[in-house]
Write a structure and sequence with these properties.
With 493 residues, the chain is an alpha/beta fold. It is built from 16 helices and 20 strands.
Length: 493
Amino acid sequence: MEEEFCFRNGVLHIENVSVQDIIPISHEDSEPVYVFSKQKILSNIRNYKKELNKQSFPWTLNFSMKANGNPSILQIFKENGCSLTLVSGLELKTALELKFPTEDLVFNGNGKQNWEIDLAIQNGVLLNIDSVFNLQQTVSACKRANKPARVLLRVNPDIEVDVHEHVITGKIGSKFGVDETAFDEVVTILQNEQLLTLVGLHSHLGSTIDDVAVIAESAEKVSKIFRNLKAKGFSSMKYINIGGGLGISYRKKELETLAWKNIAESRKHKLENVFNEISSHSDFQSILTDFKSNKISASQFEELIGNICKEDNPQTVEKLEKTLGVRGIMPTPADLIQRIKPYIDDDAHLIIEPGRSLIGNAAILLCRTLGCKESGDKSFLVVNGSMNEVIRPSLYNAYHHIELAEPTDSDKKIYDVVGPVCESGDFLGKNRLLSTPHVNCLLAVFDTGAYCGSMSMTYNMRPRAAEIMVDNDTVKVIRRADTYEYLMKPYRI
C-alpha cells in the first residue's frame, strides 16, 4: 500500500486513523464511503512541483477537475498553488465560487454551450478552441459581449497510445481537437478576428498512459506548431499545454490476490521452467501444492520461495519474481517532465493538466461485506459497494486492488467481488483470492480518488456515497451521502 494506506495488526489505516473508527462517523444507511488521505494529495502535488521548480521555463499546474470535483479537495489544490482545467460551465462556476484566479483557469471541451462560452469570456479564462464551429461560437460570443478572449488552439497530434479505446483523445478519429484537415481554416479565422487572441496551443492524448515517450512526442509536435505560428505573426503565443493523462499504479499489489488458477497459460509455462530449477528443495513441493490449489496467492508464494531459496539460489528467486511480474509500474511526474522539457523553450509557459496522478491513489471506497454465494464454479463475495461508486471496472474493464480491511480467520477462496445493483455488469473485481470474510467485514477498494465519485450515479435509486477526508488523526465529512429527500426533491413539482 501507499504509506498513507497501511495495515496495522491486520486493520487498514488511513494515515493515523483505523477504518474501524472511520465507519461509525458515517452511518450504516450511508455506506459505502469514499475515504481520502489529505497527506497523499499533498505528496502528489509536491511530486509535480518539485520537478517543475527545477525547470528554466515558467509553468502552471492545473488539476483536471473532471477527475474529482469535491470543493474541499479543490480547495487543497488552490491552497497549494494549483489552478484548474474545466470541461463544463458548472465546473467553471464552482471554480469562480472558490475564487481561483481566473487568468490561469483553462476551459476545455469539444461541445461547449453558448452560455458556457459567455461565462468564460466574461471572466477572462483561457478558452480552448476545439473545432471550426467552436471557434465560430466563440467569435459570436465575443461580439455579443463586445469583449476579447484569450484562446488556446487544441491540436490533434494523431498519436497512438496503448490505452482503452474510450480514453484515447489525441488520435485521428477522436472527437477532440483540430486535426490537420481543419487547421489552416482555423488559423485563417484567428488571423482575422480582432477580439480573439491566440495565446497558445493545447494537446491531450488520453488517460491511464504508462509511456511518457508518447507525451514527449506530442510535446515535440506541438512545440513545432507553436514556433511556426509565432513566425507567422501570432506574437502573443505564450502557452504550451501538454494536457495530462499520466496513469497510476492500479496493479502494483495485484499479486496479493492473484491465484494460480487465474495466471495466463503462457506465463504458467514460463513458471514451470523456473520451478524445475528449484524442485529439489525439500520444502518446495508443499509450497507449490498450496499455490496450485489456490490456497496462497502469487505474492505469498513468491515470499515463501524467497525465504527458502534466497541464500543458496538467489538467481532463481530473481527469475521467479521477474516471471510472476511486478505489474503496473508507472512513470513518475519527474519522468514525465524530464522527457518533455527538451521541447519547451524558455520563452514558453508550460501548462500541465494531471487529474488521476494527483488524486487517484489518495482514496479508497470502504464497503461492508453482505455475504457469499455460489453459482456453478463461481463464488461471489457480495458487498454494499457497487458499479454506482466505482464504475471503471464495468466501463473500461479496469483493475482496482481489493482487500479485506480487517482480520478474518478463514481460508482463501477465489471470488468475484460484486455489488447489489440489479445489473450483471455490477462488479468491482473478478477472480480475487481473498479470505472468506465474516458478515459485515470491512473491505477496501483502492485507488478510487479519480473518476469514481465524479462518475458515480443513483441507478436503482441508490444514494451517492459520502466522502470523508483524513488528515493525520483528524476525520472530516466533506460530502454527505444522498438522502431519499434529496433524490426526490427534483420530482416534487
